[in-house]
Each structure stands twice: as C-alpha cells, then as structure tokens.
# Entry
Amino acid sequence: MIKNNGISKGYLSRINTPEDIKGLTYDEMGLLAEEIRLFLLDSVSKTGGHIASNLGVVELTLALHKVLNAPTDKIVWDVGHQTYVHKILTGRKDRFDSLRQLDGISGFPKTQESEYDVFNTGHSSTSVSAALGMARARDLSGEDYTVAAVIGDGALSGGMALEALNDAGMSQTNLLIILNDNGMSIAPNVGGLSRYLSKIRVRPFYYKTRESMQAFVDSIPKSGKRLRKFLHRIKSAIKSMFIPSMFFEDLGFRYFGPIDGHDIEEMVRVLEHAKTMKGPVLVHVSTIKGKGYKFAEEKPDIYHGIAPFEIETGHVVNAGSENYSGVFGEKICELARKDEKIIAITAAMTDGTGLSNFRELYPKRFFDVGIAEQHAVTLAAGLAMGGAKPVVAMYSTFLQRAYDQVLHDVALQNLHVIFAIDRAGVVGDDGETHQGIYDVSFLYTIPNMTILSPASPNELKNMLDYAVLKHQGPIAIRYPKGVGREFTGSDTPIEFSKGIVLKEGTSVTLIGVGHMLKNVFDAALLLEKEGISCEIINPRFLRPVDDELILSSAKKTKKVVVIEDVIKDGGFGSYVTGLLNDAHIGAYSKIIGLPDKGIEHGKRELIYKKYGLDAEGIKASVMKELG
Ligand SMILES: Cc1ncc(C[n+]2csc(CCOP(=O)(O)OP(=O)(O)O)c2C)c(N)n1
# Structure
C-alpha cells in the first residue's frame, strides 16, 4: 500500500494547471504521482467512484499533460471514468470532495465543467470516432494542434472503436491514440483482441528492437536505397517472427509499444516523438489497474467502481443487503437448473448484472461478449432462432446502444428473447450518461415488445418466471439499482397484461411504476392525513397496459396520476393520458416524471427530491392537482 514517506514536498498543492507540471523533473513528477495516489484514495474512499482505473493512469495522465498543451491540444478520454487525475491537474482539485455529488463535479468529462474536458463521455468506445472528427475539423479549418484519444483495452473491444480504427487507419489525418492496456475491462478482458494484446504485452522486446532498427535505418544516407529496402525486409521478417500479425500497423497506424505506463520518462520520450509524426499513430501503454493500492491491485474488478470504503481494510462502508441484481442472478440460476435451454448473455458486466454465479454454474450457457451490446442482442436473436432461451442482462443505459438490434433482429421477428434491464430509472452518482430513464420510451416504439416493471424483489422473481416459462416473443423486465421493499400483493401471479389494485380509494388514482410505488405508498399516507383517499395501482405491465383496470379506477376517481422515474415523453404515462382522452369518461391525468433533458449526477434520493418524485413531492403535486 502507498505510504506517505515524508519526502514529498507538497508538489500537488502547487499544481493548478497542466502548465505547472511542465517544469518538474522526472523525480519530482514521480513524487507528485505518489501524492496524487494518496489524494485519490483519501477523496474517493469518501465519495465512492472509479478508484482502480484512476490509480492505474496517474503516470500516463502526467506524461500526457507534460507533452501536450491542453486545452489547445485536445485529449478525448474513452468512457471517461479514468479522468480523476486529469481533473486534479486541470484546476478541479479543490472541488474534488464534491465528486459525483449533486451540484458537485462529475465523475466523467464534462465540457460544461472545464475547457480541458473536450468531449463528454460515459459510454464506452467513442473516443477514436470523436477524436478523428475533431482532427478532421482541425484540418478543414487549417489549424494546427494535437488531438489524442485515450482508450482502454476493454473499450477497444467495443464495435464502435473498431469501426473508428478502420476509418482512421486509412486516413492521412494526424491523430494520436493511446491504448491504455491493463488486461482488464471491469473484470478480466475477454475475446480474441484481448488475447492478441496480452501476447504483445509480454513482448516489449519487439518495441525495443523496432526502435533501434528504425534509428539505424534513419541514419543510413539516402544513397543506401537498396540497403534500406533490404533492412526493411529484415525488419518485417523480425516483426513477423515475434508478432505473427501486427494488427495496428496493418490497419494503417504507426505503432509504438508496448511501453511501461508507470515510467513517466519513457512515456514522455515516446509521446514527444509520436506527436510529431504524420498520419495516425497508436502508442500502446501497459499499466496496472489499481496501481499502488494493494486491495485494488489484487481485485481491480471490485474496486473498478466502488461505494465509499475504508482505506485501511478496503471494506465498503454500509455494504447494503441483497439488491435487485442479486435477486435476478439467483432467480435465473434457479430457472436454468430446471430449463437447460436458458442462456445468459452479458456485455462486460457479469458482476454488475448479478451473473457471477450463473457463470460458475453454467459456463457453457454463459456468454460475456465484451463491451459489445449490439452483438450481444443479435447473438441472442440467433440463439432464439436456434431454439435456445436467451436472457440478455444489460443496464438500461447501455441497451440504448442496441436499439436497432432489439428492433430489427429480435422484435420484428418476434423472437423470444428476455431482456433483463438492470439500473432502470434514476441511477444517481454516475449522472446523465448513465441514467436509465429513456428505456420505456424507446421500448414503446418497438413492435411486439412487452415491458414489465417489478415493484419489489419478489415481483421481479415472479416476472422472470412468467417471462421465461410462459411468454412468447420479446419481453423486457426493467428493474432499478439497489435494494427494494416488499409489499402485500407482490405474490399474486403474473398474468399477461394485468395490473393490480393495491389499495382502494375514491379521490385520486395513483399509478406507481415499478419501485416508484414505494414513494407512492409513502405519499398516500401523507395525503390520507389531508383527507385525500388514494387508490393505488401497480400496473406491472407497462405494455400492453391493463386498460380495463385503469379505466375502471379512473371512472371512479376522475383523476389519475402516473408516477415514473423516466422521461415523461412517449412512455407509459403518455399512453395512459391517451387512453383517458380516447375513453371520454371525463377523467384527466397527470404525469410526475422527469423532464426531457439530461438528469445530473447526485444521490438518487436527492435527484428524486429535486424532480418531485419523493413522497413529499408527489404529495405536493397531487394536492395542487386537486386544488
Ligand atoms: C457501452 C458501455 N458498456 C458498458 C460500460 C460499462 N463500463 C464502464 S468502464 C468499463 C470497462 C472499461 O475497461 P477499459 O476501457 O479497459 O478501462 P479500465 O477501467 O480497465 O481502465 C465498462 C464495461 C460502458 N461504460 N459503456
């Protein structure tokens, strides 16, 4: 574990912009790196966040800011979860204790937060496309600066990154790509590309040989043309001897690496050189995820994104009880025991989606496809076509990537694919790029798609039973992050397109979507104290909706309020509004949901409060509505 050895002269306190590191010696930068690690641990252990990835890029970030002149030169960070060091070096150190808090700094790059953040990220594998676009814009306007993309080996497995490499490699555009290779995605990286990288990671000899050969060739006078050709051939021969196929060079990149991503001096030397080269260049840097903090080095997956923890023991403070992901993981194992056609698919989120046990128990029926949501969905379509029962477990926000695959490959063919959509609704700390607040609206546009929303862990289990064993066709079950609360009635069997009345009342109908029912119940208690009698409905099916149930309640109360922690437009609430309009029963509706804009980061309860989705907010809206 890192120890403050007392020799630090407090370099960090003097760093306010990247300019401040330009004059430091390499020894001083080494000490600064240690200080940054202590600072990161101290701060992130209190706020929670992506500690392991950031500990791994301390030296890389320092080297980049030493060589490049940000903000004139642009650095695009892929995913963006590893930008804490960049934030510390670019004037946000003093606000770092507000990381991921409401009104505090974001855990991801935000152009609105700093001129040093040049592109907003959060979802993986976008950096090369964005950086190439910026570089082309630069060339078109005749400007001259460096554009760099920093991409991890995990993010490189995403299809978009490969599409971008394919484009960039054949272009003449000056572009610098830094491949930060730690062998890890959240968990150990998977797939053929990852295996290829690990092969070249253990052969740094190639880089050294190649470099000295290059220097030698460059020193040969122009007249030695034949000798140059001959040496070029030897170089290729050596290359193919050690590396059967140099993927990046074949794609059109000048390749440097792998170099030690914790050796600032070596990185600065290579980056200085790479920056002056014409055309696309890829610098392959080898780093250790979690570097310097024993627990994170040993278990980088656990410390990838973590809640507040104790530095000394590594233990998470307030490790919660069983959550929805755990309930899903357990139930899907139980179903798989009975039905061997069940297959589980994840896109690099085995632990996050609760599938670790499934992987252990049914390795042949488990597929982690890497950060490849589109492929995951079409793979499921193929499996369903072949007679299997695929369950795609994916966070709501990442399913956005696969909209067309859900529509074109699964839904139009009415295939029985089960989408277990985790982190649906407001997620909190990770902020606008990660909120699961769009899925209901976009799933509403997908033909044949059935959408379910459990209001409790028990209901999630029952819905999985229904979706896997009884349903035919595409079906999505969307459930939130974290733990849930049980309520009476959650055990009633799930029937196609049927909701349930959980409490009868006469003044207003409250329809709580999924886990929002918890706040709805609390709000109803407050409203009853004001003499307002609430009828509470759990719709269960957000599509197709139990029209009859809602209309019969609306005929009685004449006022229907839908409470959902997703955007208000185009989803379930909008459907209910249309239903009441068309029925001409003199009932009207109101939706309490989220506005059609990015929803910022912050504790989930605070976000609910801000947007009127907590019990008090619901009560206030209903009172206003009732006059
Ligand atoms: C489209 C998408 N899918 C999944 C994720 C979740 N995710 C965040 S970081 C990460 C792993 C990234 O690995 P790598 O790029 O190697 O970075 P490292 O953390 O190892 O430095 C994953 C899967 C995401 N951000 N975006």
